[in-house]
Structure formats: C-alpha cells, structure tokens
C-alpha cells in the first residue's frame, strides 16, 4: 500500500526539495552577516562621502537577517523530521492518522506564512540597499568586491551572490510549501471522506438490519 500511496510519496519528495531550499536561505544569510561583521544590509541605507568616496552606512536592525536565518533553520528541522516520519510510515505500509494530518495542515500553513514574510523581507531589504549602491555604481552587482566601507571593515565580495541565492531560496521555498500545504489539505479531506463513508455504511447496515427484522416479524406470527 505504501508504494501506491502517491500522496505520501509526493509529500516526501516535497519535503526533500524544501530541505535543500532551506539551506539556500540559511547558509547565504549566515555568510553575509559574517562577512559584514554582524551588520545586516537588508533595509540599510547611507550616504556616499564626496571627499573619499566611502559609503557611510546607516545600518538597519540585525533582526531582519536573524529572522530569515531562523526561518531557514525552522524549515530545515521541520523538513528533516517530516522526511524521517513519513519515510517510516511508508516503510511500514501505513499512513498518518487524522490528528497528525490536521497538525500537518496547521504547520504547513504557518510555515508558508513565515516563508512568505522572509521572502518579502529579503527582496524589499535587498532592493533598498541596491538603491543606495546604484547611486555610485552602474549596477548593484558591480558594487560587490569594492572596499566601500573601510570604517566598518565589511567584506563586500559576495553580498550580491549571497543575497541573490537567499532570495531564490526564499521564493522557491514558498512555492514548495504552498504545494506541501495543498498535499496536507488533500490528505485531510481524504480522511474526512473516508470517515463519511464509514458513517454512511454503518447507517445503511443498520437500516438493512431493521428492515430485515420487520420483514421477519410476520413470518413468526
């Protein structure tokens, strides 16, 4: 039965993809914060000094980067747990219960929302930083690798690639988690339909038993 359970296999495949994509959020953002000496470029602004060409940054809160890293970590752990749990169910030829299916729906919707927020933060925050970079450079990509802020000692070599990877990971994760939410809802609906079928079959059986009792009463008389 496990091999024919397409929905369960689809869920496992989805969680494997989501696990990989969570690393695309967590790893680049962690590298970025390390290279920027703990600063977070998301929503950071600043002014270009005319005398030395340096960028005087007005750093935004680290909470923006910390949130995206935390979301990536939560997604990674959730995917790892679900891959193990669903793989064990498939190996045993079983499926999750109605309660666990309901919990899956709630968790999937919650994590989809958290991922959406992270994706928006990364995209809008990166756009804010790039608007400042394009005041001095033709493009944000060309600003990478330039020693624009000696005062803070930041390493700008990889920020464009790292934020681009995090942005890709966040939006791709969102699409995967939307799919996982749909799978979870479909499984819950299937359980609901099976429960309705059981109730209908029980009522029909009771009706047939009662009808049989009524038809047998005249024979005894």
From TrEMBL:
Highest classification ranks of the organism: Eukaryota, Metazoa, Ecdysozoa, Arthropoda, Hexapoda
Transmembrane regions: 12-31, 67-86, 98-129, 168-189
PANTHER family, per database record: TRANSMEMBRANE PROTEIN 179
Family per similarity comment: Belongs to the TMEM179 family.
Subcellular location: Membrane
Protein name per UniProt: Transmembrane protein 179 isoform X1
InterPro entries to which the protein is assigned, alphabetical: TMEM179, TMEM179-179B
Gene that encodes the chain: LOC107216877
Pfam families assigned: Claudin_TMEM179-179B
Source domain of life: Eukaryota
Membrane topology: Multi-pass membrane protein
UniProtKB keywords: Membrane, Transmembrane, Transmembrane helix
Organism (species): Neodiprion lecontei (Redheaded pine sawfly)
